[in-house]
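User: I'm preparing a small set of examples for a lab meeting where we compare how different chains pack in three dimensions. I only have the primary sequence for this one, and I'd like the structure in token form so I can line it up with the others. Please keep the answer compact; I'll paste it straight into my notes.
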Amino acid sequence: MSENRVDPTVAGLFLIGFITLVFGIIGIQLFGDGGIEGDAPLLAAAQFLIAPVSFVILIFAYMAGKAGNAFAVALFAFIAVALFGASILFNNEPMLFYITAFFFIIFAVVAFLIGAPKLLGLLLIFVALVFLFLGFAIATKGDSSVFCVAFGLFGILSFIIATYMAVGLATQKFPVV
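Assistant: Understood. Below is the structure token output for the 177-residue chain.
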């Protein structure tokens, strides 16, 4: 068997980047379409796509456990559960997103305490802000376009950081600090 396996951390970061990019595009689209009550075909497609992606992230959590990375197991398992919940309750329950944001902040604090790369902590804070502003956008039914734009912009920033970290870890060509 080949020793060239996909690092679950790199693969998980790429998926986190993908999901946050989708959230970012949705936020910008909702701003342009007049809020969550508007016609947002990308929103419906994302809800359909998020559930299967959450199961793939759960597989990466298992792989991280096999590799001995307890923090990645906890983080990826939480992300998988949060995304699956988001795919079911997207327009109905902003409290899910507030709780998810709170746990991302806890993961960011733990990341700083265990000496993980500072970019990981920043990524987790940005992802927390994505979920927090998404909850606000849902609570206001998108009436406040500021929340749609904020969760869109933080989603795109999270995508950039996650992709940078994943490429940096995969290629080891530039530092991930």
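A couple of notes for your slides: The chain is about 80% helix and 0% strand. The mean pLDDT is 81.

User: Perfect, thanks.
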